[in-house]
Amino acid sequence: xxxxxxxCTLRGRVAVARCFLPLAMASHLVAQNPPAAAIDWxxxxxxxxxxxxxxxxxxxxxxxxxxxxxDSLDPRWLPSFExxxxxxxxxxxxxxxxxxPWQRIGNRPVVIILxxxxxxxxxxxxxxxxxxxxxxxxxxxxxxxxxxxELLAPPAPxxxxxxxxxxxxxxxxxxxxxxxxxxxxxxxxxxxxxxxGFREGDVFEIGGLGKVDSTCRVRLSGHPRRGAIAARIGxxxxxxxxxxxxxxxxxxxxxxxxxxxxxxxxxxxxxxAVVELMPAIPSGHWLAQLETRAxxxxxxxxxxxxxxLNIPDDFPP
Length: 317
Prior knowledge:
alpha/beta
């Protein structure tokens, strides 16, 4: 079994592209690699939550509860960090306009679980966010992005994965605007960073709101899968590679451009109007709502955004 250097292992970072292997070894790895496998985000959630609750303690604020295992983080650093995270959550709630009548979370706080193990940090849809401790230590943790997922969720079922009927879930997934459901949390998180200075993990090294457009332009223009990625930004349905072990190859570009397009829409119709698209997603009314507010069809808005970034809209399929 060929072992990759630690910096090259799957960890959701752009830095993987900086790893260089001898040609013979790279060829061997390509020959030996199995087809892309699906990523399982959630199967260990209950175990992780139970472990941290049994071996840790909470820090409680009005709008967030932060759980961390005992002796897992520097006690000299942790209290001030938790205070800054709580302040960041307050700013995030204000930016979203919380409370809104459709928010699933209502007046409940976001619960943030700092858990051992190597996994992709994620929201659960049940008021709870799981963050890998290794990402906290390295400064990669997307606290505000994942908390935004919880604050933006309308009552279930919302995500295609929340439909018990597999066929219905597939039908919902085919038209779900995944780019918006990821781009809006990113845009909100980076807006809070810009105003408060909170140290949100820049998971895909996008560079913040000031660089998101140029990062999208450079990455999309030079990406070997640019056609497939571009088709999903402003389109419907999901980019399948994001949910497999090929995620690292496409996520840095997809997330940068999803955030960039969301930023463009916010400048066009206002952030509050973009936020109000979320409860209209399950019914499918979000599209008409967006186009009415913008005074233009979504494909037109997408072309205008690409033109503003000086990106040609002629990507191969």
